[in-house]
Amino acid sequence: MLEAHWDPRRGHCYPHTSRYPHQWLWDSCFTAICWAALGDRRALSELETALQGQLPDGFVPHMRYAGPTINRGPLAGVSSFTQPPVHAHAAAFLARHGLEPPPGLRRQVERALEFLWTRRRSRDGLIFIVHPWESGADDSPRWDAWIASDWRPLRWSYRRWTDFDLALVEQARFNQHGAAVASTAFQVAPAAFTALAGHAATELAALGGGDRWTTLAARLATAIDRHLWDQTEGLWSDAPLLGGGASVAVPTLDGVLPALVTPDAGKAERALDQLLDPGRFLAPYGLAYVARDHPKYEADAYWRGTAWMQMNYLAALAARRWGRGDVVARIVELSRRAVEVAAFAEHWNPETGQGHGATPLTWSALVVALDELGPPAG
């Protein structure tokens, strides 16, 4: 499947050659992990090209266009928005598999994180985003309060969300290099994005980035626990900084990912336990993205209930950090089952396994990396 999406001229895989012909940041980071898990040196090229569009201030665009410029900000060739910073984890994963990233790439990762810490840090010490695209979870119900004050009955609509996303491009504010640094309508500190930034800092320190990044990761983890923990849901929730409202508390898998960085075992265990609870995230072919007991759960809707391989992978990483082999094993089992039914689909119905979106999509090959975290196949 990866071979079928590999472009030797550009040195990376397309997520899907017809539906997604561009290069996306976190897609390529995850694809690099897949190549490394398979023992293929194309992992290095995948990660290096993902960072090729880095701007002079360290900002890493979430897209490198395969064709004409599209409406993702003022830059030609790349977007002006970013995506979750999983590049440091990808680099560390490659290093652990004998594919040592060159020193220049480690410095690129460090500059990318420096941008987030200097240009995207709130007064509470959290990392914020200025467009839902940057979260990776584009149409999550967490953003519903930005669309309508009466957000509770809102259901997913392709046209509504496309209009919303494109309007936010116009409401973003860009620095002299073309990187989005603010918005007049949407700023939020997401639990998952902030946690992945903290996890990235830890991975960078392990790559030789120095104790400074260990310290910064610990401070960020403290801020996440202080400002984002939701005692009612037993998860971490986002913090709306500009616009929005209570929809950020809709329980999603994003709310589990701060288990990657929290020092609080009680909080981590409470969140991770929900991955084994059929009343919350555990489904026959899941993890469901939205908790199954919540009114916002739509099993077939984009980022509103369907299952995603990259979310399974990140949740398993969080569970492994806390020695939760029971959680990891179940995620691996469900992921293998889903791949067989959904045929490596972009995302799928966690109740039936029915695939949705582009099929096949490269990041669903993460099932091979998940195999390293769980029991042997068969």
Notes on the protein architecture:
With 378 residues, this protein is mainly α. The chain is built from 14 helices and twelve strands. The strands form six sheets. A two-stranded antiparallel sheet has the order 1-2. The protein is globular and about 45 Å long.
Count of DSSP-assigned helices: 14
- Which spans of ≥5 residues are poorly predicted at pLDDT below 50? none
The run of helices and strands is: HEEEHHEHHHHHEEEHHEEEHHHEEH
What topology, given as strand order, has the largest sheet?
1-2
Mean pLDDT metric:
96
The shape, in one word, is: globular
Helix- and strand-based class? mainly alpha
Report the sheet with the most strands, covering strand number, pairing sense and barrel closure. Answer: 2 strands, antiparallel
Estimated radius of gyration: 19 Å
Distance between the termini: 21 Å
Q: Tell me the quaternary state.
A: single chain
Helix content: 40-55%
Strand content: 5-15%
Overall strand count: 12
Produce the secondary structure layout.
Elements: H1 2-5, E1 6-7, E2 12-13, E3 23-24, H2 25-37, H3 42-50, E4 63-64, H4 87-96, H5 103-119, H6 132-135, H7 144-147, H8 158-171, E5 172-174, E6 180-183, E7 187-189, H9 191-209, H10 211-228, E8 229-230, E9 235-236, E10 239-242, H11 265-273, H12 309-321, H13 325-342, E11 347-348, E12 355-356, H14 367-371
Antiparallel strand pairs: 1-2, 3-4, 5-6, 7-10, 8-9, 11-12
Helix pairs in contact: 2-3, 2-4, 4-9, 5-9, 9-10, 12-13
